[in-house]
Amino acid sequence: MNARRRLVAGVLLLALVGSVFWLLVQPRLRVETDLLALLPRGAADQRTASAVDAFSERLARKVIFLVGAADPAAASAAAQVFADALSQSGAFRAVRERIGEDLQASASFYLGHRARLLSPSDQAMLEAGGGEKLYRSALLALYTPAGLMHPIAGSRDPLGLGSDYLLEQLPATGNAQLRGSQLAVTEKGQTFVLVSAETAGSPFAGDVQDRAEAALTAATRAARAAAPGEITLLQSGALQHATVAARRAQNEVALFGTIATVAVLALMLVLFRDWRAPVLGLIAISAGAAAGISATHFVFGELHLIALVFGSSLIGVAIDYSMHFYADQFRAPRSWVPTDALAHVGQPILLSIGATVLGYMGLLLLPFPGLKQMALISIAGLIVACACVFLIFPAAARGSGRDLPRWCAQFIAAIEQSGHYLAKRRARLIVGVLALVFLAVGLARVQFRDDIRTLQMVTPRLAQVERRVSELLGTLSESRYFLVSGADAESVLETEEQLAQALRALKQGGAVEAFTAVSNSLPSLRRQEQIQRLLEQKILADDGLLPRLMQELGFDAAHAAREVEAFRNSRTPLQPDEWLANPISTSFRDLWLGASDGHYATVVALAGIHDTDALRAVARTIPGARFVDRVSEISAVLARYRVAVSELLLLAYAAIFGVLAWRYGLRDAVWLSAAPLGATVLTLAFAGIAGLQVNLFAVLGLLLLLALGVDYAIFLRESSAERTTALLSVSLSALTTMLAFGLLGFSSTPLIRSIGLTLLVGIGSCWLITVVGDSWRRPPTPLSLGEEHHG
Amino acid sequence: MRRCPWLAAATLAAGAVLAVSRSACASGLFDQPVSASELLHTTLAQPAAELAAARVLSGKFVQRRYLAGLDRPLVSQGDFLLAREQGILWRTTTPFPSEFVLSAGGMTLRDGASTTHLSSSERPALRTALEVLFALFALDVGRLAESFELFGQNQGDHWQVGLRPRDGGLARLFDQAVISGAHTVERIELSSASGDRTEIELSGIETHASALDAGEAARFHP
Question: ipTM of the predicted structure?
């Protein structure tokens, strides 16, 4: 294919990539920012996986606001206006600033089923023969102001059983107290009213964040306008962290991308002294970026922000092919024509991209959605950037006709000389001993840490707000919970009751402060029957507590008999559907997961966990109940994959060594693979000495190090005839890669930082070992800095 | 509990008279909405100021609870102690001895046989109930205005304040209330939509400027 035809093909490729990106991808691109979306599922139990996912999503959507003011009435009014504004905005759902407000509905719900409902503590008291105590507290309630606190009137519920049933199912509220139907906390003269809401959609989706932010701004303004005095607003939940993380990561993409691009293009301009070099380089980078993003969009339907940040570092790798191409001119500055370049550097470039793409393919094999995206964006981006070099450069590039800049030639010479200096026997000894000491000290101190929490970005300001909210509310709901599943609603509720009984004992023992279970409000049919028998025997029978109390209070016998009969007849079995349709279930609806994949599930929410092991132990004794601790499950997954990727790394080394041995012979294969292997060990030792924790993402960085680093040695080996240009190419390549990944070392997202630092140190040491090793291996040759030295 | 027929008849008669007078009075009262500051410009201002200055309030009470369907009220008597730092101590002597304590920490009920304690974290409505009951007895119209719509009426030295909760829900103590008195709070009537009603008559009210001593304060602990 001649240069002109190649150029036509190249322009067509650019037009295709460009139009696909601008017309099809860019308008529809959905950017995902949830760190957990990067990770594989826990997969502890496939049947409950979807229920756990559903509830985790719900938990992530939850946002808690505290609207505070010095005047309680102002706080209350502001909270109401705030909640109304949020719920009208459409950006939030299930906005609640009131609980239990529909007392009428709850009371008549209870009265309609009262022969089958009982609070767990009243049930326990009656079963234990504590009827007399119940009787006495009913009298106390009637003869003291205590009865005022009963939500159902004494004449409708003389024994207070209904009031206990309604009050005992209130969710755990910690320090918050009901003021009217609002939950509020008062501290240091400030009253904060609690408003809870859910984001309409995942809090990690960019559009959801934007709408939520607009709605929050408007609602805050409305709240401030509605009440006199200063209004404080505190927020808790994933939304604010996700929003900040997303904004930061977006800024990082823009910043790192710009810095890397400008630096790399400036370097090309300075080195190759022709305006076409940076322009063509920019075309190759842009086409690669557009192709990478488009491919990811089409395959995954979304683009993870972390993959995008990672992709931005590929600028440093993608530019290599342009650099290799242009650097070829220094082989023969005056006579170089671009069409010749591929004959000299074409094969090393193909080998290099082959090794890199193979490395990324390794990531595609792992079941990590996020890593697959990183791999795909890299593979597509690099291939297209490389194709640009092969198709467009031969026709469009121009040599400057000048030698390598003097400073650059001196730099290369200095590298070469230090290589030779280090190649002397004594120097080898010293370097060897120093390296061994460094390795021994560093490797001994390597720490592995897989806690997902250390990988999430923490903003001190938000962390402080979060702490303030949990201080104010006291016991805050936990991210750990029990998942109860079963074949039908009845068996789920029965299992839940078994669990609730165990939890009540644990609560007494102090292992957990509070729990919220659906079955407190909706008993299983089996328990409803038990309750009905118990009530019949202890409450409604002729000598039962109700006729006795009514007689003692002075009700006439006929009235009492009618009342007992009405109670007895309110025995329609309570079914989940009726319960769900009544306001009484409002605060439980989140916990009722219903049916999915033919399985029913509910969540038992916990507050104030003090003994995790005791809770795990309970779950083990009750079939159908599972203690879900996503943080430690995810951390365990990270640890498992860190080990798996480490094994994959060894396997990759073995495979690459095999290929090298087959092509270059055993002796050279050892030399060629020594650089990335040595760099890997040095990087680990560096992490040990610098106190950086080694996690899955650092090990992935090492895998990339192998993919990127092995081709330095190959490149030097393959282009042995043009040693100076090869050395220049390799050095430029290492420099741009270190620049791009080094920038990632400044990322605010720890996992990006982890990969960035690993590659910064890894590539740096890999380059050093390659260059020095190459000098050790071959006798000193005169440097060829231009065609006059060259044959 | 023993039943006394003559007492029942007497209280029934008294209750009926009171009920009639209450409804006549109340219909007028609840036509006259007022604000807390307007109330404090009436004859109520002086007792309100005295009660506000007191750190401890004590006196005797008679409570009559009228249950729908029951033709005579459930009557109890005793004495009470209201302390700003501690809460409400309600000691009933007849028909049977008992103690009802409401403090920021929760509610304690004692009778001869046992003690029951419910903490505020278990029952999130208790602290608000304490604030509202305290404000009713101490005539703290500012606090009452936060949770209730206020109504007012005067006749000579006598005043009446009507209350309707701004917000129903589990935490509400009553659907309508009337506080009345002259030089101090004399009567509190609380009624619920179901027809149940509680009347509390206060007498012998004493205000104390000093806080409770340790021994008295200990009675508020569960």
Answer: 0.86
